[in-house]
Design a protein that fits this description.
Order of helices and strands: HEEEEEEEEEEEEEEEEEEEEEEEHEEHH
Number of strands: 25
Structural class: alpha+beta
Strand order of the largest sheet: 1-7-6-3-4
Length: 458
Amino acid sequence: MAWPPGPLLLLLLLLLPLRLLLHLSAAAGRPCGPAGLPRDAVLGLLGANITLTCQDEQPANATVLWQVEKQGAAGQLAEGNTLLLRQLRYEDSGHYSCSVGSHLLRSLRLLVAEPPETPQVSCYRRSHDKDVLCEWPQQKKPSPGTRAMLWVRRRFVAENATEQRCRYFSKARKFLCRLKVPPGTDDTKSLVVSTCVSNGAGGSAGKDKIITLSSVLRPDPPVNVTVQALEGAPQRLQVNWSYPPSWDPRFYWLRFQVRYRPEPAPTFMEVDQVMTTWLDIRDAWRGTRHVVQVRAKDEFGHGTWSEWSQEAVGTPWTDPWELTSEMEPYSSQVPTEDDTYGVTLSPRLFEEDDANGAGGSVMESSTHPVASPYAFLVTGGSLLLGIALFVGIVVRYRQMWWTSGQETSKAEGEGQHMLVPLSLPPPTLSDAPLLSHPAPSAPGGLHTTQADHSSSGQ
């Protein structure tokens, strides 16, 4: 009986997802059991007791002798058909043998181990062009012969996983695995990471972790962090830093976060969204040392923040005059003879005079005064300014005296000269003078006088 084409097609469509799920589950559920032991090996748990047996029945009238070889050295142990080892340590691992005389009865290998810890894996990528690093910490040193493996595959894709061997770093006390990222891999595609740690005492598989290349991006912390004071600014600090060597700023930038605090304060103040490699702090505490740290993140916000950089310290600029005043404190008042308080003087002026046994206080200057070079500069500048002001006043008064002398001389000279008229005099009635000298008369002419001229006019 033939199946109709419609139901058959529907059945195939239902079986395909089921087959895919079975394949994915088989790929994800890789075996993670204890490592196989050789036939002559005996497993002993760390810290436990173990009894090694030479033969099922003890030889009659014979002395059984135990020997051990470990780390290239041989040693003789107790006698008897059984050997009891207490509180096993890793150093107890080695080859044990029992013999009667020169006849070897049995040889076995003792392996001291403890079940591995369950891995808690975390992955990160130091920049866009670096491989992915996956690691997990260890509370205790793993047993000798412990093996750690990591598998990675694309999610929802029926393919074989890529296997990577992991190494243990004793100083950092962690396992580390490196995943090669093929060029052109999509940063947004999901990957499934599986881990397994096993040895002769057992195996432990970590929980599968789903990651993307962009989500595990975590730069290294910034380097060369410095804090400098700005001259003339008692509340400002200049913070500078550099990109980590693992990040190339020619392709992608980083944004930074800066936190700082004055040393007496327990909490930090933070500044976000810093795109430069410097920051000007404008609210620093006067004369107080500050602790500054910087961390970085991808400019687009992908991944997580880096670790904080190493601490850098700096103190804002301090006015030298204020610093000199603070270095030489003085008492506020001086007691007088009638138990009252008078003018303010330096305590250096009061010293005990015990030479004459009077026990009184006398005022005398210090024999070794501590003078600051800034005080000499201020005093010299004030002296020069006073001299310049005095010279200016003298020159000014001299100019005023010279001008007054000139005005006095001018007033005395004006009485000896005629004033220039402001306007021309009125014109005369006749160009001829009223009285003129008599001219010599011509022969035969009339000779008249002024009296005649007057009488004729009348």
